[in-house]
Amino acid sequence: MAASELYTKCARVWIPDVEEVWKSAELIKDYKNGDASLQLMLEDGTNIDHKLDPKTKNLPYLRNPDILVGENDLTALSYLHEPAVLHNLKVRFIDSKLIYTYCGIVLVAINPYETLPIYGTDIINAYSGQNMGDMDPHIFAVAEEAYKQMARDERNQSIIVSGESGAGKTVSAKYAMRYFATVSGSASEANVEEKVLASNPIMEAIGNAKTTRNDNSSRFGKYIEIGFDTRFRIIGANMRTYLLEKSRVVFQADEERNYHIFYQLCASSHLPEFKNLKLSSANDFLYTRQGRSPVIDGVDDTKELCSTRNAFSLLGINESYQKGLFQVLAAILHLGNVEIKDRDSDSSIIPPNNRHLTAFCELVGVTYQDMSQWLCHRKLKTATETYIKPLPRLQATNARDALSKHIYAKLFNWIVEHVNKALITNVKQHSFIGVLDIYGFETFEINSFEQFCINYANEKLQQQFNMHVFKLEQEEYMKEQIPWTLIDFYDNQPCINLIEAKMGILDLLDEECRMPRGSDDSWAQKLYNTHLKTCSLFEKPRMSNRAFIIQHFADKVEYQCDGFLEKNKDTVNEEQINVLKASKKFDLLVELFQDEEKATSPTGQVPGTGGRTRLSVKPEKSRETSSREHKKTVGCQFRNSLQMLMDTLNATTPHYVRCIKPNDFKLAFSFDPKRAVQQLRACGVLETIRISAAGFPSRWTYQEFFSRYRVLMKQKDVLPDKKLTCRNVLEKLVQDQDKYQFGKTKIFFRAGQVAYLEKLRADKLRAACIRIQKTIRCWLARKKYLRKRNAAITIQRFTRGYQARCLAKFLRRTQAATIIQKYQRMCVEKKRYRQKQAAALAMQTILRAYMARQKYQALLREHKAVIIQKHVRGWLARCWYKRCLVSLVYLQCCFRRMKARRELKKLKIEARSVEHFKKLNKGMENKIMQLQRKIDEQNKDNRLISDRLAGLETSYTAESERMRGELGRLRGVEEDAKNKGNQVNSLLEELEKLRKELSATQQEKKTIEDWAQTYRDEMEKMVSELKDQNGSLKKEKDDLNRSIQEQSQQMTEKMARLIAEETQQLETDLNEERSRYQNLLTEHLRLEEKYDDLKEEMALSSNVSKPGHRRTDSTHSSNESEYTYNSEYAELEEGSRAAEDVTRGIDTPLTLKLQKRLTELEQEKQSLRNELENKEEQFQRARARDDAEFKKARGAELEYESLKRQELESENKKLRHDLAEMRQSLLGHPATGAGAPGSPAYKVLLDQLNASCEELEVRKEEVLILRSQLVSQKEAMQHKDEKETMTEPSVYVEDVSKLKDADEIKQAYIGLKDTNRSPRFMCKPLEVSDLLSRLRSAAPDFHKLNEDGELWLVNQGLKETIRLLEHQLQTQRRSYDNEVEALRGELQNVKEENNRQQQLLAQNLQLPPEARIEASLQHEITRLTNENLELLADDPTASREARVIILRRMVDLMEQLEKQDRTIRKLKKQLKVYSKRIGEMGAGQAEGQTSPGQMVDEPIHPVNIPRREKDFQGMLEYKKEDELKLVKNLILELKPRGVAVNLIPGLPAYILFMCLRHADYLNDDQKVRTLLTSTINSIKKILKKRGDDFETVSFWLSNTCRFLHCLKQYSGDPAFMKHNSQRQNEHSLSNFDLAEYRQVISDLAIQIYQQLIKCMENILQPMIVSGMLEHETIQGVSGVKPTGLRKRTSSIADEGTDTLDSILRQLSAFHSTMCQHGTDPELIKQVVKQQFYIIGAVTLNNLLLRKDMCSWSKGMQIRYNVSQLEEWLRDKGLMTCGAKETLEPLIQAAQLLQVKKKTDEDAEAICSMCLALTTAQIVKVLNLYTPVNEFEERVSVAFIRTIQTRLRDRCETPQLLMDTKMIYPVTFPFNPSSLALETIQIPTSLNLGFLTRV
Q1: Rounded to 5 degrees, what are φ and ψ at 259?
Q2: Rg for the chain, CA atoms, rounded
Q3: How far apart are CA 1607 and CA 1634, in angstroms?
Q4: Is the pLDDT of residue 1502 over 80?
Q5: Among 1104, 1217, 1129, 1772, which residue's Cα sits nearest to residue 1470?
Q6: Which residues lie closer than 8 Å to 775 by C-beta, 6 or more apart?
Q7: Strand, helix or coil for residue 73
Q8: Residue 158 backbone phi and psi in degrees, to 5
Q9: Measuring CA to CA, which residue among 1618, 1616, 1661 is closest to residue 1634?
Q10: Of 1270, 1308, 1314, 1276, nearest to 1292 (Cα)?
């Protein structure tokens, strides 16, 4: 393909850039061959002229299409080069927040420097079992691929994690190990996976440190082998370490720290257990303060130490060893603080009593003198003598630091060794997966020995990586059978030879170390002389003679030679080591150096390599010879260990993880292109790209190529053979055949060819779009033209019509105007004439009127003048009169004043006289009366006002409180007026003030009048104000009423909402509680199965042929397991006990001890048994003769009792028969009102009933009297019971002998009666014969015997039994003779009594039934009383047995009597009513008048027996021995697909219930218990055996639910009997309450339901992703994008691929099966809801983890698939089951893929639409959204930020994935059956012929 075809206008290219490494640009002019430059435009709009290299003429790299940007696999890119890789990683990391990317076989992991929620258990479960290419890139995908290949290929695997410090290697390795621990589990109970994970905090504490690049940098390399057994479960692990950075112990650079463990100890120095270490802050020690950064942000060293200690404990390193380790570490810190001073220039000294050296010596247990001596001296040995040479201060300090490093290296190795011991198991390892966490390529400003070794290791790993990639490429080409051409790739073998070959760098370094006076300078010169001219990879720096440069595969590195020899030799003073070995107080320190003699350096020192890298050297004969022998140096050992590692990796299948550090500042999601490119070049990612690009990097299957590029083909090119079609089309499209190759299943393309095809496809689609647009625009334009043309024609038509109408109108108007003019002119002339006439008349009228008015005016003026004169004259006369009057009044006043003054003087004189006072008083009284009248008037006015105010108050009281205040103020004014009246009364008392008040009376009057007037005005004003206020109050009232109504409405809505929320919350809580309960049941079932499995394994491994049963209490049944009918608490306790049994069951030594002890106990038991049998034989021979006669007597009694029961039953039969006949007669001849209340017949019947009741009460009183007599007799016998007897010892005898008074005897009788009635306590008491049978039984299960300390219980029980038997034997010897005589006398009495009973029986048979019962009871009581008195008189020992027999017999008789009384009383009532009605009818007068006794005596019709046989009661009878056969045929061997398919739904449940009814009818509690227990256990067994068969599980779920419904329907509970027929109510259970068993069966149904869901999930799970996501239901909507090496599952429907139709068919099969089995409809709805939840959850989870599925077209596919599922629900009538709602998250995710995602309105719409999705899920979908075609647009980062901001306030869980294991809590609504039990027929195919219909 010519360059001119690709480098055209608008093509985008990459050009180099200093800052961004690569910058994108666009061509603005086509490139032509021969052009020296390219015209480009940058993204910022700048135009540049890019010059091409004149020599190479290399064009810049082309940029990939936008649809390929952000691909999961870099090899899927069409153009494979460095800028494309860098840009793809940047887009994924910055825009999509994706840190993992595939690059062929390499997983590139970029450190986000932020905690991401992508490592939870749900993510692990999502990746488990998936193919590596089917999910988005992840470390879990690599781990799953390694695990799967190990299991599939039976080959060991390795995961190689590399990268520079801070790139996240340790975290990636940790997550890989966590994945293995979670997925595989452990093969034992030792929790090996937890131990493997627990090794991480230990190794991080002792091997990780803070550096300038990483807060938790691993300063050593490690390779962890995780071992697996044959079932691929973790059984152990092993760790190898490489090249620990020991120099960090004594030196740290700025902003760095020492190893974490030192700071953890210093931070925890305040703890009591660390007081003896004498530690303090980290700033107080030299070894921890040099970096000046003792604290890491966000890290608590105290808590980290707790985690480290817990990990130590978990790995089995006890507290004492931990204390020793911490002592060694503290000693290292103290040793670093030892100050060494100069003594002179050649020697040094440590000051005496140095505090830190003293602490060091105390901690390690050595002497202060020895340690201080050898820190400052060293020993030199020659051939003849030994010298002690002092060391200068610098050398002494270096020796001290070397010792510290050596101790720490030894401690590190010791810890690694013990960690490996804890991780090693005895189980044979089948395979392993190795995780290599090793340092990446490093280059610093100063590079030393450590960097040299690290880069050497990376050279080896890179070589292995290149060979592996080359090998995979070759295998792929050979597999597809395409021509293989040699790919030129970088081979770093020359660099490796330079380092490790003979006379290489390491060889020369070792040689220099062996030289006596070797130095770094001489070694450098040797390097220059050897390699400078012979090797192109070796260079010498220009400005240095102590350094060298090596050209590594990644970059050139300059190494400084200083320290190489010292670090390679790893020198340490041997005498210092000897001092430490001499420690007698500290065993751990001696243990650290116990192998010192086996591996030392050339100067007697030990290299500080890791745990597994040290090679043992065979010791020589003498120590001197050993010390002279040249040992392996650090470099040599590292080379050997590295070779071992490479051998291991070459023997495994490697998986590569390359960790990238995005920036040097630890900023979250910040990408530095320069740093990224450096690491990509160093880690081999770009080399992988180069190798892939050199061959055929793009690979398509024929189907994918056809689907993608179908648009480039014509219809005639499409052939039936897709392969041939693709071949023909590709040959036409690409002329150069070297650009592609056809393989067997794939087409291989050169780099750039896919981009070219994409360009052709885009051009074709663009041309098609243009043609479509052209056609649509033409159609729209023509449509618009036709619309305008029609509009113009219409307008013309209307215009012409309008013009014609206007012309006609004009003509009509013209004619009308002419006529109007004619008439108008006539009217004008006529009007003019009339105007003239009217004007003349008007002029005459006006003139005449004017003359009349003039005359009138003159007359009027004259008249007014007269009137004015009259008034003026009157006014003048009045003015004169007024002036005269005023003068007269003034004169009168003056005269009167003079007279008043005179009168006043007289009054003053006369004031003292009584008469005058009286006169004056009379005047005052008058005045007071006048004032009182005025006050009354005022009061009256006030009352009127008050009445008005009261009226106002009554009308407006409810509206305002203010009005009441005003009225109160008015009443206060009234009170003031009254007070003024009182003031007037006070004038009577103050006579001296009367004269003053007289003068003020007028003023007061005036004041009162003014006040009254003012008061009226104020009242009127107040009334108006009140009216205004009333109006405002009315307004406020209306507003308040309106607001109250609004508030009430709001409150109502709020309360309704709160009630709905509360209801929803309660429902949620109920569902959670159900879910928790059902989860407990699931866990219990799992423990049950685990217990059964372990029990089977133990049974197989044990020599005991028949395991025994667990010992239980005697009051419980031991035939079946207890947990099947106990409560839930018992089930949980049983589960915990089973789990405890599992942990104890495999202890072999304990089993042997138990067997030995049991053998001894059996021997002791055998001896006791023999002795007991001898005594028993003697006793049996003595009483054998008497027993025969006693049995005869007892047989007579039993015969009498049976006869009596038969009589009662026959009597009941007669009564029922008569009752039935009466009912039939009444139904045949109904009488009107014969038996109505108030009638004579009714009164007679009522009298008879009362008489019967009185008679019954008399009988009850007699029974009570008899009981009291028995009690008194027992009390009289009590003082004689002093001895025990062996004759029928039982719990009843013991209980009776312990009773002290009558009350206790009475209580014992009642308790015995209740016990016999209870179905749970009907079993026989434990007797001696039972005990003997248990002792004679086979040996118990040895494994069960040790449960919960039962061995001790058995021993104690045997001892108690022995003591009891010995005591009973002694008692037997003493009482043997007396008992024989007593038995003979008793036998004689029995014979006599037998005769009497026979006579009484003969007499009783002649009496009527009622009298017969009374007589029998009376005779029985008399007999028992006499017998009891005789026994009391004769023998106390025999009387005890008799008392027991009497009590038993009395209980039986009383129960029978009470039962018969109830039955007879009921039947008598009915019989009397019916007989009375018949008598009133006249049909049977004689029968109606007879007594009930006479009616009973009438003969029974023989038709009763055949009628009862034909009347089937809905019960099935079976024998006890047929129970196993019943369970086997009906449950275990019944096949749903065979016989059961033709049965009525639920037939096994009906059969089991009918058998249960018969057991209930017989009142047989043991039979009920065993039947239910066998049924439950058998169902569990068949489910365990065939739990994977859906039909079996569904069948037994249906039958279990039906059995549960039958137990409820026929329980007798009114709540469950509402829908029963009368016949069904008669079939209810009568004797047992099975509520507890209903709970057990309900739990069993829950377990079956969960098993059904699990079975369905296993069937549906593999189909969901393929059918819902990958398969294209709508063909052609989504095109297949290019895929990389990690090929995904094809979305094209191949043969065998699951589609949506497959899912629908499977759902229909599930539904039809459940319907066929008769499953309850509500239960089917719950199952379907769970099915749809699984479908939705799995689909959504895969969508969230697959970037290629997040596109617009895939959203359409998903919505279509969901619509098909909804249609299936409609067809099945299941739309209301809630299944559709479970798909809501998936529906919203599909809508999110299709909606517009640009503006803020779009963001608001998304937030309101996606309510079922969490914020994390919404953001994840937006981040993963990927355009499939160029016409789609990516989601911008700003839009995603907007979504996050809007969803910030949501309260939700941060979980990303849905829980696919979640099961909705199931309920079993009561569903009664209308099927009558008596109509059920049992098919012969069930082989249940032994069942008998009852």
Answers
A1: -65, 145
A2: 58
A3: 8
A4: no
A5: 1217
A6: none
A7: strand
A8: -140, 140
A9: 1616
A10: 1308
What angle, rounded to 10 degrees, do the helices at 1635-1665 and 1565-1585 form? 10
Which residues are CB-contacts of 1282 (< 8 A; sequence separation ≥ 6)?
A: 1436
User: Angle 574-576-578 (CA atoms, 0-180°, nearest 5)?
Assistant: 70
> Rounded to an integer, what distance in angstroms lies between the CA atom of residue 55 and that of residue 708?
40
E strand or H helix at 420, and its extent? Answer: helix 393-423
Rounded-to-integer distance, Cα 624 and Cα 605, Å:
14
Task: Specify the residue for token string 């001073």.
Answer: 341
The whole-number pLDDT of residue 797 equals: 94
pLDDT tens track for 1630-1688: 888 888 888 999 999 999 999 999 999 989 988 898 888 888 777 655 555 555 555 54
Per-residue tokens: 1389 = 């009495």
Q: Please tell me whether residue 653 adopts helix, strand or coil conformation.
A: strand
* Residues forming a β-bridge with 101: 108
Question: Cβ distance 9 to 29 under 8 Å?
Answer: yes
Whole-angstrom distance, CA of residue 1516 vs CA of residue 69: 76
Conformation bin of residue 353: beta by default, left when phi > 0, alpha when psi is -120 to 50? left
For residues 1697 and 512, give the distance between their C-alpha atoms in angstroms, rounded to a whole number. 68
> Residue 344: beta bridge partners?
347
For 783-811, give one letter per residue: b (16+ CB within 10 A) or e.
eeeeeeeeeeeeeeeeeeeeeeeeeeeee
How many angstroms separate the CA atoms of 1483 and 1474, rounded? 12
Question: Which tokens belong to 1111?
Answer: 């010992």
pTM confidence score: 0.60
Strand 106-110 to 653-660 pairing: parallel
Q: Residue 609: its pLDDT value, please?
A: 35
**Residue among 110, 183, 113, 111 at smallest CA distance from 141:** 183
pLDDT of residue 137: 92
Pairing mode, strands 547-551 and 341-344: unpaired
**Which are the contacts of 1683, defined by CB distance < 8 A and separation ≥ 6?**
73, 76, 133, 699, 700, 704
Confidence band, pLDDT 50/70/90 cuts, at residue 1689: very low
Neighbouring C-beta atoms of residue 893, cutoff 10 Å = 11
Residue 1300 phi, psi (nearest 5): -105, -30
Contact 1477, 1235 (CB under 8 A): yes
SS3 655: strand
Burial 562-596 (b: 16+ CB within 10 A, else e): bebbebbbbbbbbbbbebbeebeebebbeebbeeb
- Per the CB < 8 A criterion, the answer to whether 584 and 618 are in contact is no
Do residues 1835 and 1820 make contact, with C-beta atoms less than 8 angstroms apart? no
Distances 1430 to 577, 1266, 1386, 1433, 1435 between C-alpha atoms, Å: 103, 18, 10, 5, 9
Residue 448, sorted as left (phi over 0), alpha (psi -120 to 50) or beta, turns out to be: beta
Q: Are strands 538-539 and 431-439 parallel, antiparallel or unpaired?
A: unpaired
- Whole-angstrom Cα distance, residue 1754 to residue 1793? 8
Alpha helices in 554-595 (DSSP H): 564-569, 574-581, 587-592
| Residue 813: count of CB within 10 angstroms of its CB | 11
Nearest to 160 by CA among 659, 686, 675: 659
Question: In which element (H, E) is residue 730 found?
Answer: helix 722-733
Element (H, E) at 1277: helix 1240-1277
**Which pair of tokens denotes residue 966?**
């005003």
Q: Which of 440, 323, 483, 489 is nearest to 678 (CA)?
A: 440
| pLDDT per residue as tens digits for the range 829-845 | 999 999 999 999 999 99
Compute, in degrees rounded to 10, the torsion defined by CA atoms 545, 551, 557, 560.
-30
Q: ∠ CA(847), CA(850), CA(854), 5° rounding?
A: 145
Tell me the C-alpha distance between 209 and 609, whole Å.
18
The residue behind tokens 């001898």 is 1174
One-letter amino acid for residue 1202 of the chain: S
Who contacts 578 (Cβ-Cβ below 8 Å, separation ≥6)?
A: none
